[in-house]
Amino acid sequence: MSQSIRQESFSEADDGSSTVSQRTTHPIIGSRVRDLRKAKAMTLQDVGRGTGLSVGYLSQLEREQAMPSIRALSIIARFLGVNINWFFPDPEDEAGAESAVIVRGNKRRALRFESGIRDELLSPSLAGQLELLLCTFEPGANSGNELYAHRGEEAGYVSKGQLEITIEEDVFLLHEGDSFHFDSSKPHRYRNPGVDRAVVVWAMTPPHY
C-alpha cells in the first residue's frame, strides 16, 4: 500500500477515515470503490448507513480528495463483500496502459459469497457497459431462494459442471458446453444442482451484482 499512495501527513477523523489538505487517494482506489458501489446499485447513503462512515467522506474518497485509513477501507471492503486488495492497483501495471485493457490470469480481483459462489472479474473494471466474470459454484451454491430481477441482460457459457437457471416459471438445466442468454428484468435465480463444482463464464450488461 505504501508504494501505491503518496505519503503526506494526515490525521485520523472521528469516523475512522483520514483527513488531508491535498488529494492523496490513488485514483484507482477511489474509482474502484465508486465502480463497485454502482455495480451493486448502492447509493453513497446506503454505504454510509452500512459502514457508519459519513456520506461526505465517502464522496471525497471516490473523488480522490481524501485518503482512507486501513480501518476505513477495511470496513468499506467488508460491507461491499470484497477483500481490501480489490481496491489497490498492481504496482507493475500502475504506470502503463495495460491495466485499462488486460486482466492477467494471476491478477484477477475476486468476490466470495457465503452461498458458495466465487466471482473473478475478467473485465479490467466495472466502469463500462459490460461485466465479464468467471463464476465458480460449489455443489449446492445458489443466488438465493427468491427470484430477483434487475435491468440489463445476462449471458454465459458453462465450462464445467451443471447450472440450473430459473427464469420466471421456467427451469433450465445446463451442462458442460451449454450456453445461455436472457433478459435480466425477468425474475430469475440460479444454482449448482450437481455434486461437482461448476464453472461458468458469465457476462452482464450493465455491470451488476
Shape: globular
End-to-end Cα distance: 27 Å
Radius of gyration over all CA atoms, rounded: 19 Å
**For the report, how would you describe the main beta sheet?**
6 strands, antiparallel
Average pLDDT score: 81
CATH class division of the largest domain: Mainly Beta
Quantity of strands, as a count: 11
The amount of beta strand, in percent, is: 25-35%
Kindly report the CATH topology of the largest domain.
Jelly Rolls
Strand order of the largest sheet: 3-4-5-11-6-9
CATH architecture term of the largest domain: Sandwich
SSE ordering = EEHHHHEEEEEEEEE
Task: Give the helix tally.
Answer: 4
Return residue spans where pLDDT drops below 50 for at least 5 consecutive residues: 1-25
How much helix is in the residues?
10-25%
Q: CATH superfamily membership of the largest domain, which one? A: Jelly Rolls
How many structural domains does the protein architecture include? 2
Class by SSE composition: alpha+beta
Structural features, described:
The chain has 209 residues and is an alpha+beta fold. The protein has two domains: 77 residues, lambda repressor-like DNA-binding domains (434 Repressor (Amino-terminal Domain), Orthogonal Bundle); 107 residues, Jelly Rolls. Helices cover 19% and strands 26% of the residues. The strands form three sheets. The protein has a six-stranded antiparallel β-sheet, with no helix packed on it. A hairpin with a 5-residue loop joins strand 1 and strand 2. The N terminus is likely disordered.
